[in-house]
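I have been asked to look over a protein record a colleague put together. Alongside the sequence sits a line of tokens, each denoting a local backbone shape. I have pasted the whole thing underneath without changing anything:
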Amino acid sequence: MIQLKPLLPLLLFGCLAWGQQTQDNTDYIEFNDRKNVVHGVYLGLTTYYGEMRGKSTYLGGLKVAYVANRQFEVGFSGVFLYSEQDNPRTLNEDLIGGYGGIHLEPILFSKSTVNLSFPLLIGAGGVGYLANNFDDPVDDPNEDDIYAVFVAEPGVSLLFNISRYLQLEAGVKYRFSSRLELEDSPLRNINGFSGGIGLKVGVFNMGRNRYKKHLNNGL
């Protein structure tokens, strides 16, 4: 026992050093420096203006999409179309229709306040003529009055991140469609440029690094 007494201070110092090292290691392990995968979902509304054969064309859209890590969107989009064609072959009727399908949108500079994106809609719909004189009686539309079309609509947009829940967009698109074979129609397709703005409302950065935020608040 007498020989062990000189070793007691050394043993006590060793225990204290081991305890301090354990605490330091725990702090290091708890620090989360991994990149977070950020998810998002939103509901979007758009309004666009363009021309079709030199005639004013108005478009309104609705889309629902999932945003993967603020870098890619996938969802569904629907578009309503109205064009002041004044077709002389059909008593000055205007063109009306709609189309919808899958929405894809890769996003660049996603961590910046302003992003660059390349939206693409691939889908199908139908168009037909509607009398622009509401005083004249109009028969109920039948299958001969509406023609189905396939549509691909690529574009380029600027996305403005207003907050975690709100995003504005502005851009231009070009609409490609399959051949249109409506009776008494001078149009062979519904191709054309359009430009406009939109609003996205949702949550764009779910899955933030909550644990790292907790450590920062504790400093």
